[in-house]
Every structure is written in structure tokens, then in C-alpha cells.
């Protein structure tokens, strides 16, 4: 159970908005400097980036530079020349990666080239699709894990694959004990009137297990953190969680917060990671962290012992509220514990990206990282959090988000997530930009407050949850194809994404201007109308429906002074202390303290 997450939920419930009287004042945050104007995108900079082989940067910058600004004298190359040569450079790099069997790099370059083709369909780009790359990898001999590539066939189209290709994937899914893929391929073969191979047919029948029969696929994750001294007495410091095997080579999934001491550079104490198998709880098997994502609270571990049973992801299953579910884990260290409940809600915005299930299945210390199963024993999610103060309010990560991250986790280390550097709110018109981070890719390409994001990588979007899987599919440094509306005019932009910070607003809240931060953090647009010795004066221009400011009773034209702006690193909260004259209160001045958690769900 993630009690850091529970602590965060408590902050959201009890601290999110408070109205109090106060004494004292403090200065506001530091102000950021002027951002680099688009006019400073220079021909020389493009030339330098091209010489350094930074082709994605060249392509992005060329679209921003006015052709009239390029040098007219001497033997200077045109902007079109730089653009096309950069495209050729990316294509050459892609084919080199394919020829050298560097499939992860080939996939990354391929995504950039696909994005480029979306906005420039006139450019003919010869690419293998991602399924062909996956098939090539699957055909390679060796002991490398095939699971992340095999799992592509859970969500890629398969109806245009040949019978031979389907049979090859089916054979591999049986060899890798991946029941979800085997079932999907078998279904397609049967649609074509093909007889199933006896091994495939037997495997599909054998994989149908009840939740109780899935117990051997689950393990206890045990982290020894030495001793802690409390009141002069040494006490054992242990973290107990759960995990489940997804790969016959000993790979298993758990929560990041369970193994954080193994990879968190700020942790300076002793830490040793072990796994206990369900049929041998007395033996601790050494394990290591392969990859992890703090944002999604997921980690991939590896042991050198082959598991007896595996679980496989089932991302195409629709989960209904009220559906019967089961959780397997080690609450309080009690291995092989199976608990039951129902899905209370879906689509909860609890993490910064993606969504989660709310469940009432009993969750306690030690359940974190365990599987969430449906009544048929199918894996539908990963247990990760509960709220101590409220019985029966617990959360699980849908398996589709883990599946999207799987390749990044297998690559190793901190699974890199991309970011464009702006925040939005959902409106009837679409995704409206309410914040642009200084120095971000969004600022560098000229995105402004009020711009509407209408399309991402060729998919029309008007909800945040539609953008998240498209964004996660990318890696930092890649290009994304975007379309925008500004004052009714459409604008198409290729944007080179950067690596997302664990909590993007945590550093931004310390350096950026309050008038820029009020919209994404508190839900109101404000205007600076004057500065004072100890405080600045503002006026509310707009209040977003359902926001923090709306719930606090703010209205347009309400004047206020900002007395204090404080960022609290742990638990990651910004506090704003105001003196305001609310129109709804007859413009009588009162003191208001507002708080907002910095792990927002609106930052892309």
C-alpha cells in the first residue's frame, strides 16, 4: 500500500482549499526572466545544429524561422535544404539502427519520422511499421527477453498479418506462456477458418485459471533497509510489498514506492532487495531493479530464478463499475492472501498521467504492487494505494498503462517520459492552454495562453486522457506532430519533446510569476495591477468552473494582494496567502489561504 500516495490524498482532501484569518506576510516568488523570442531562432543556430547531427532540432527550428531572415549573400544553404537533409539524416540513422538490430533506437526514430510524415505527407519516407520491427526482433536467436516486443501484438492490428506470421507469434506466445496474446492470435486464426495447432489449443484451455489458481504467479517483495534508531533503540527497517511475474526469465512487476530506496539518489542508507516465492516464503531470493517510473509508481525487477507461473496483461478488457475483482498480495507480510471486492469507479485522476481504478477490495501494507484480477483470473491492474482515513477507498493502475511503459522499463533505469511543457484545461472548444513553462519546448515553438490543442500525432483530441497514451508512446528527443487553433487560425507544429521531470510544477512554482501559475494551480486567470513594498496587487480576470478558486468563491474583477507564496517540497504543496475583496461578500476585505498540490494532472 502506498502511504505516500495516501498522504497525498489526505493533503488533497484536507488542505486543498482552506479559508482562514492570518497574521504576517512574506515576499512572493522569484520572477523568471524574459523568454527567448522566436525572432532569436537564427540561421546560424540551425547551421550549428545540423553540423552536430541534431536533425530533430533543425526540423523544429526551420518551421519557426522566417525564410526572409536567411542570409541572401554568399554560398549559404536554404532553409528547405537544411530541412530535407535533416529528414534524410534521420532516415539514414533509422536504417542503420534496423540493420544493426538496435530495435529500441529504430522504434524511436521511426516515431519521429511518422510524426514528420503526418504534417508533411508529400515527403515519401520508407519505413517498416512497428509490427515488422517487432517480428524481426522475435525472429532473432538469443536469450534477450521477447516480452516487450511480443506484447505489441496485444494492441497492434493483426488482421492483415499472414497466416504464417500469426502462427509464428502464436508459437512464441506459447513458449513465453503469454496467454493473452495466444488467445488473441487464436481468435484471428479461427476467424479465418484455420485449425489451431494442438499446443496452442491446449495452452489456451490450460491458461483459464481462477483467481485462486493465480497465486503461484505472485511473489512477496522484501526490502531490507537495515536498522532505524528510535529513542536510542534500534529497530529493523523493512519494506514489504508484492509483485507478479510476467516473464519466464524472472522479471516481475511491482510498485516504485516499494523499491524506491534501491534507486532514489536522495536515499543514503542501507538497502537490499529480495523476492520471496509463493511456495517458498522462507527463502529470500536476491533481486535487482531493471527499470522504474516514479510518475506511474511502477518498477520492473529481475531474479535469477525461473517462476512457475506467469500473468499476462489484458488491456482490451472493458472494466465496469460494480464488477467483481480480486487482489493478491502479502498484507502485513502474510503471503498468498487473496481478497475480494468490486470496482467502485473508473477514470479517477489520481496520478499525473493516465487514470486509475477506485476499488473497495481490502488493501493494506504489503499489498502494493500485487495484481488486480477479474473474476476469470485475468490481470486487469496493479494495486498501488489506499487512503488510511477512509475504509474501502483504494486504487489500482489499469494494466494498459503498464503495458504502454513496458518497453521503457525493459530498457532499464528511469523510464523516460516526454514532455512538451504546457498545462491545459478541458473546455467545450477543446484543450485550452493555461500555462507555458519557461524554456520548455512549448515556449520555444511559440505556444501561448489560450491556444487550443486539437490534434496530436494525427489523432483529434479534446480530453487529456486522449493525449496521455499518445504522449507516453514517445520518448524524450522525439518529434510529435501537433495541430493548434489560435483566433480561428490553424497552426501545425513539429515539437521536439524534452524529458519530463518527476513533478514538473515543483521547480516552476519557485521561479515563475504568480500571475502565470494561478491558472494551472488554482484555476483562475489574474492580472498584476500594481506592486507594493511587501506585496503585489492583482485582479481576478476569469475563474475556471469547478476549480480551487471557484470553490473558494472567487469572481471576476475581485481585487487582492498576494501576501505570501510558499512552496513546501514535502509533500509538494504551494500555499498562497491573500487579502481579497470578494464581490460576493460585498467587497469586504478578508484573508484567504489557498493550497494546491503540485502533482497536477493537467501538465503535458
UniProtKB/TrEMBL annotation:
This is Peptidase S1 and S6 chymotrypsin/Hap. It comes from Sediminispirochaeta smaragdinae (strain DSM 11293 / JCM 15392 / SEBR 4228). InterPro entries: Chloro_Bact_Ser_Proteases (IPR051201), PDZ (IPR001478), PDZ_sf (IPR036034), Peptidase_S1_PA (IPR009003), Peptidase_S1C (IPR001940). PANTHER family: PEPTIDASE S12, PROTEASE DO-LIKE 8, CHLOROPLASTIC. One of its GO terms (biological process) is proteolysis. GO terms for molecular function: serine-type endopeptidase activity. The keyword Protease applies. PROSITE patterns: PDZ (PS50106). It comes from the Bacteria. Residues 403-461 form the PDZ domain.
Amino acid at each position: 500500500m502506498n502511504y505516500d500516495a495516501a498522504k497525498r490524498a489526505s493533503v488533497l482532501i484536507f488542505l486543498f482549499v482552506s479559508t482562514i484569518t492570518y497574521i504576517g506576510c512574506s515576499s512572493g516568488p522569484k520572477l523568471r526572466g524574459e523568454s527567448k523570442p522566436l525572432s532569436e531562432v537564427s540561421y546560424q543556430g540551425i547551421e550549428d545544429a545540423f553540423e552536430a547531427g541534431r536533425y530533430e532540432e533543425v526540423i523544429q527550428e526551420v518551421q519557426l524561422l522566417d525564410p526572409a531572415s536567411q542570409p541572401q549573400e554568399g554560398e549559404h544553404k536554404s532553409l528547405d535544404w537544411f530541412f530535407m537533409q535533416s529528414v534524410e539524416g534521420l532516415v539514414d540513422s533509422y536504417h542503420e539502427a534496423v540493420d544493426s538490430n538496435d530495435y529500441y533506437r529504430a522504434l524511436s526514430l521511426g516515431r519521429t519520422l511518422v510524426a514528420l510524415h503526418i504534417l508533411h505527407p508529400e515527403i515519401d519516407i520508407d519505413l517498416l511499421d512497428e509490427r515488422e520491427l517487432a517480428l524481426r526482433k522475435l525472429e532473432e536467436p538469443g536469450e534477450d527477453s521477447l516480452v516487450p516486443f511480443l506484447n505489441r501484438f496485444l494492441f497492434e492490428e493483426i488482421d492483415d498479418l499472414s497466416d504464417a506470421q500469426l502462427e509464428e507469434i502464436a508459437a512464441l506466445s506459447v513458449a513465453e506462456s503469454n496467454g493473452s496474446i495466444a488467445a488473441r492470435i487464436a481468435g484471428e486464426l479461427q476467424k479465418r477458418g484455420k485449425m489451431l495447432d494442438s499446443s496452442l489449443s491446449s495452452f489456451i484451455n490450460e491458461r483459464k485459471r481462477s483467481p485462486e489458481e493465480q497465486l503461484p504467479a505472485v511473489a512477496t517483495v522484501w526490502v531490507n533497509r537495515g536498522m532505524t534508531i528510535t529513542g536510542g533503540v534500534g529497530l529493523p527497517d523493512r519494506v514489504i510489498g508484492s509483485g507478479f511475474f510476467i516473464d519466464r526469465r524472472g522479471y516481475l512487476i511491482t510498485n516504485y514506492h516499494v523499491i524506491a530506496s534501491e534507486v532514489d539518489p536522495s536515499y543514503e542508507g542501507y538497502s537490499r532487495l529480495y523476492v520471496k516465492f509463493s511456495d517458498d516464503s522462507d527463502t529470500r531470493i536476491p533481486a535487482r531493479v531493471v527499470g522504474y517510473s516514479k510518475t506511474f509508481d511502477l518498477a520492473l525487477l529481475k531474479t535469477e530464478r525461473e517462476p512457475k507461473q506467469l500473468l499476462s496483461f489484458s488491456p482490451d478488457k472493458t472494466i465496469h463499475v460494480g464488477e467483481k475483482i480480486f487482489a493478491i498480495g502479502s498484507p502485513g507480510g502474510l503471503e498468498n492472501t487473496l481478497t475480494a471486492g468490486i470496482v467502485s469507479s473508473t477514470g479517477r485522476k489520481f496520478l499525473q498521467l493516465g487514470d486509475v481504478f477506485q476499488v473497495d477490495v481490502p488493501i493494506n501494507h504489503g499489498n502494493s504492487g500485487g495484481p488486480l484480477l477479474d473474476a476469470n483470473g485475468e490481470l486487469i491492474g496493479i494495486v498501488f494505494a489506499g487512503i488510511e482515513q477512509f475504509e474501502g477507498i483504494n486504487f489500482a493502475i489499469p494494466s494498459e498503462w503498464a503495458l504502454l511503459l513496458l518497453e521503457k522499463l525493459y530498457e532499464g533505469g528511469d523510464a523516460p517520459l516526454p514532455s512538451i511543457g504546457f498545462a491545459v484545461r478541458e473546455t467545450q472548444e477543446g484543450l485550452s492552454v493555461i500555462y507555458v513553462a519557461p524554456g520548455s519546448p512549448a515556449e520555444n515553438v511559440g505556444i501561448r495562453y489560450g491556444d487550443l490543442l486539437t490534434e496530436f500525432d494525427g489523432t483529434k483530441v479534446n480530453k487529456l486522457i486522449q493525449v496521455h497514451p499518445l504522449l507516453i508512446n514517445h520518448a524524450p528527443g522525439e518529434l510529435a506532430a501537433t495541430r493548434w487553433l489560435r483566433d480561428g487560425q490553424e497552426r501545425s507544429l513539429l515539437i521536439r519533446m524534452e524529458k519530463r521531470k518527476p513533478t514538473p510544477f515543483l521547480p516552476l512554482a519557485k521561479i515563475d510569476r504568480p500571475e502565470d501559475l494561478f491558472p494551472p494551480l488554482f484555476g483562475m486567470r489574474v492580472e498584476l495591477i500594481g506592486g507594493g513594498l511587501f506585496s503585489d496587487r492583482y485582479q481576478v480576470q476569469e475563474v475556471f468552473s469547478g476549480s480551487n478558486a471557484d470553490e473558494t468563491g472567487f469572481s471576476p474583477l475581485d481585487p487582492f494582494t498576494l501576501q505570501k507564496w510558499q512552496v513546501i517540497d514535502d509533500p509538494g504543496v504551494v500555499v498562497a496567502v491573500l487579502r481579497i475583496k470578494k464581490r460576493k461578500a460585498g467587497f469586504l476585505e478578508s484573508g484567504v489561504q489557498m493550497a494546491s498540490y503540485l502533482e497536477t494532472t493537467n501538465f503535458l
